[in-house]
Amino acid sequence: MKNIAVIGAGYVGLVTGACFAQKGNHVTIIEINQDKIAKLLRGEVPFYEPGLDTLVANAIANKTITFVTSIAQALTDKPELIFSCVGTPSLPNGAADLSYVEAAAAEIGAAITDYTLVVNKSTVPVGTGQKVQAIIAGQLAQRGITVPFDVASNPEFLKEGDAINDFLNPDRVVVGVESPKAAQLLRELYDPFITSDEQFLCMNRPSAELTKYAANTMLATRISFMNQLAILADLMGADIDQVKRGIANDRRIGNHFLNAGIGYGGSCFPKDVKALIHMGSEYHFPMTLVKEVDNINHFQRVWFINKISTHYGPLLKDKTVGIWGLAFKPETDDIRCAPSLDLIDDLLLRESNVLVYDPVAMPNISARYGGALTYATSAQQILEESDFLVILTEWKEFLEFKPESFNLLRDKTVFDGRNCFNPSAMQQAGIRYLSVGRNHRAVPSTLPRSYDGTSAPTETMARCRVVASEAGEDGQATP
Ligand code: NAD
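^ thats the input. predicted complex w/ nicotinamide-adenine-dinucleotide below
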């Protein structure tokens, strides 16, 4: 059992803290966002993550978790390990904004008095561990004292929506260390989470830092590959679902991250892909494959939204467009870099009436768009009051609708960015159903004229909403 401090009560920090507390450690969580800390002190979880409220409530009841607003306050509990879980949003040039990481390191250096293992859990570019070490050493020098400390990297691989399960039962734990003591402390801490030594992957710090980018970029590459293939499938009269079946049964390939759709979003893939491209450019080594992954993902959104505007043209001005799903994926309220933002912006420019529904992300969307949108209270209401429907998140409750339900839509038309329904069943129900890579039974697909397949599309649609100029003080994209 250890004393641990966790900096940042976001999607990663709060899950990390609650899971360490669940294993009997004492955890102090430091959060500077006033709204978040006020909620946490009332015992509320400030965002949606299944099961997290129960875990936090148990930890509060067992007195294994406490919440404070500064690292200096957290040090009264003498934590042996401090986990830094602050945001690392994209800067306009694609680089990771390290200002929150650096500020946290400076606070640590200004306050520690005993040996501390500082662990970077945020996704950070290679070399950040070294930077953090220099910042802490600089602070200690200013204080005129010597305090032993180590800096380790421990990238996090949890996925929002299933974060607790991922944290409690990790496929692997990656740690990047520069001292045997750091390795030993982390091995002891993670012992209750793993079943074998093989799951604990100890390496040097740069390798651990790069591993996180490698994992996210590999997954993003699979998605972009399938998305590009899906458009080709549409043009050729093939069905991307059948193609997926044909390759996913090959054990060398497997079936994960092969679903075609409107493209990946969220707070991680878009920014991490861009950060890896930027890291390559810093070493004068162009990451050509990764650049195309990013270009394809952007193009996918343009292509999908273009389908809608091509279909309706100027008529969109008088249409009520219903949107199912605003979060970047199901089981989260996170709208950072979600495709819904690009579609909504496009529709508002065209002066459409936009009616939206999401089971949990409505507060985040209304904080961003306010009265510019109309907010439905159910998926059913969208069908009853819209001309046509656009599906952007594959929430389970949407999948339960029968094809006949879509006859309620005035135009009996559905644009499905997540391939939720069977095209034949939709067609039989009399629905005009446009999905991704399965349109051989529907209308022929067209490409936006600007795309020649070799360079980035020239449409002006924003590439991603997670940019520094939009990030709030807490490193989150606005809301
Ligand atoms: P987040 O924006 O949800 O949370 C960051 C929190 O840190 C915010 O609440 C912010 O107020 C707080 N913070 C910033 N500076 C602070 C300081 N000096 N002291 C105390 N609190 C401070 O971010 P997140 O989604 O949890 O991501 C955090 C990091 O983990 C990022 O680098 C991200 O790339 C990485 N990551 C995220 C996920 C995910 O699914 N969200 C998964 C794996 C890794």
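The longest strand covers residues 3-7.
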